[in-house]
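Reminder: ligand-aware prediction takes two inputs, not one.
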Amino acid sequence: MMINYWEDLQRIRSKRPLIHHLMNYVVMNDAANVTLAVGASPIMAHAREEVEELAAKADALYINIGTLDDRWIESFLLAGKAANKNNVPVLLDPVGAGATRLRTETVLRILNEVEVSVLKGNGGEMMTLAGVVGMIKGVDSLGEANLEIAERLAREYGVTAVITGPRDYVSDGKRGAIVSNGTPMLQYITGSGCMVGSVIASFMAINKDLLIASVEGLVTFEIAAEKAEKKSSGPASLKVNLIDELYNMKSSDYELAKIEFKE
Ligand SMILES: Nc1ncnc2c1ncn2[C@@H]1O[C@H](COP(=O)(O)OP(=O)(O)O)[C@@H](O)[C@H]1O
Ligand SMILES: Cc1ncsc1CCOP(=O)(O)O
Ligand SMILES: [Mg+2]
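Here is what comes back for the chain with magnesium ion:
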């Protein structure tokens, strides 16, 4: 499959799509910086009084349940429905699904009431949603999934499913892809999963093919992380260098893409 990574990144940079985030308090600032570094325009807003208005005008909506409570949950649903009404694609990150009942039930409620375009979580979260118990500790995954689970989730929930981890599994129910870029050091930065969501949402804003947009987001983020790691002495410098490498991405960097497609 031919993917125009570089052309699509240029489209993000020239269009500067608005990415409306309902992003957890832990990662809010980093997700905004990552979004800017790829060339899109972030707004972090979760007040129930404004989310419908913003989601309706955005180019993509990113719902991340990381620091949920009653008010946030109300806003997730309001924003998601407003996005649906206006044909704005929606990415959902089920942070900590399986860790508590509130998290699992909230994700299922959103999937039931909102038409989610891309469901992206780590192995433990996504295996929880596929009915496998005990694979999550807080927000951390305790195991790696596989393409079959991604395909099952895609079909069951009518989404493009993205399962992150040492290898990332992407499925839209028909086509599948495995991305093997990245570095284990990403596990030592909080929010690496949340941040890759911002990059995927930026590609979703300019590419209607959700499987390809997901792969483009994963590959872009993870190649930047590989380059950043070479310049870093630990997680703190990795995070700073990662934002720089996203900003400084070159077309030749995409030669590093490690991707396998399954039709
Ligand atoms: N062992 C690993 N090797 C390479 N990349 C990894 C590894 N673990 C996670 N990643 C990458 O880090 C990012 C976050 O994934 P993950 O850790 O699964 O999410 P989360 O932060 O939500 O738990 C993804 O881009 C993923 O591919
Ligand atoms: C630590 C933590 N606690 C609530 S949200 C959050 C960030 C989770 O980020 P990620 O899903 O990328 O690991
Ligand atoms: Mg996560």
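Residues 5-262 form a domain with the UDP-N-acetylmuramoyl-L-alanine:D-glutamate ligase fold (CATH 3.40.1190.20). The longest strand covers residues 18-22. We will return to this case in the review session.
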